[in-house]
Amino acid sequence: MNDHKTLVELQEIDSQIDALDYREANLAERDVYLALKDEVTKLEALYTSAAKKLREETALLKKHEDVLEGLNAKIAKEEKRLYSGTVTIPKELAGIQQELAHLKGQADNTELELLEQSEVVDGCKSDDKTISERLQKRTAERDAAKQRMEDELAQIASERDGWKVKREPVYAALSEDASRLYDKVRLKHQVAVTVLEGEICQGCRVDLPSIEADQIHESTKLERCSNCGRIFVKPTE
């Protein structure tokens, strides 16, 4: 196999590898996974904040409950004194009645605050549940997306390894000068090998001078485009 045919085969293999590299770098599955990962991270932070608020509001609700419980205990104690018959002095009875009125007023206010706080806690519970359910859903979607991404990357790696195995003997079949030239051109152009059709380079689509084109067509050596530098191979060989 001469260098012309070998270069064509090598370029075909490298183009397959290049396509796999591009596919890997622009993997749609990765974009989906990263978007879901970012959303899950934000939801986790939101859930942490919501859970903290729920704990704080629940603690405040418990405080109101304790205060109301304490007031009711004092009211029961004062009512027992008032109706027990042990207190007979009018002035003292009036004092108990006044204290009861004060305590009941405090209890009414605390009960109103308790009801309002209960609504706040219920709202926090609803928010916590909504965020938790959304977080669970998005986490499952993220995990599934990650698996699809990893499966696709594994498939790409497997295909690339296969092409690299095929590449080794083809590259080794090139002459030293041809391999050195190919490597040099590949640093600038992914497609390093092309053909000259008439006077037009199929790599850069530039018309070459007629004399130059004729010399290239007649040459049996590896010639290059004077414009883009790509290597010309014979289309019929």
Distinctive features:
single chain; 237 residues; Helix Hairpins; 2 domains; 3-stranded mixed beta sheet; two-stranded antiparallel ribbon; 5 helices; mainly alpha
Summarize the structure.
The chain is mainly alpha-helical and 237 residues long. The protein is built from five helices and five strands; from the N terminus they run H-H-H-H-E-E-E-H-E-E.
Task: Explain what the structure shows.
- The protein is mainly α and 237 residues long.
- The protein has two domains: 13-174, Helix Hairpins; 179-232, no CATH class.
- Helices cover 77% and strands 4% of the residues.
- The chain has five helices and five strands.
- β4 and β5 (231-232) form a beta hairpin.
- The longest helix has 83 residues, at 90-172.
- The N and C termini lie close together (10 Å).
- The model has no long low-confidence stretch (mean pLDDT 95).
Architecture blueprint of SSEs:
Blueprint: H1 3-25, H2 28-83, H3 90-172, H4 176-186, E1 193-194, E2 196-197, E3 200-201, H5 210-218, E4 223-224, E5 231-232
Parallel strand pairs: 1-5
Antiparallel strand pairs: 2-3, 4-5
Give me the CATH architecture of the largest domain, please.
Answer: Orthogonal Bundle
Mean pLDDT: 95
How many domain regions?
A: 2
Count the beta strands: 5
CATH level 3 topology of the largest domain: Helix Hairpins
Helical run tally: 5
What sort of overall outline do the alpha carbons produce when their principal axes are compared? Answer: rod-shaped
Helix/strand class: mainly alpha
| Main β-sheet description | 3 strands, mixed
Q: How far apart lie the N and C ends? A: 10 Å
Low-pLDDT segments, ≥5 res: none
Q: Roughly how many Å is the radius of gyration?
A: 42 Å
Question: How much beta, percentage-wise?
Answer: under 5%
Strand arrangement, major sheet: 1-5-4
Give the % helix: over 70%
Please provide the ordered H/E string of secondary-structure elements. HHHHEEEHEE
CATH class descriptor of the largest domain: Mainly Alpha
